[in-house]
Amino acid sequence: MRTSFYSLVFAFLTCTSITAIAAPGNTPEVMKAPLVQEVTAKAASGKVDLNSADAPTLQRELAGVGEAKAKAIVAYRESNGAFASADELLEVKGIGKAILDRNRDKIEVN
Question: Does the CA dihedral 68-104-106-90 come out positive or negative?
Answer without folding.
Answer: positive
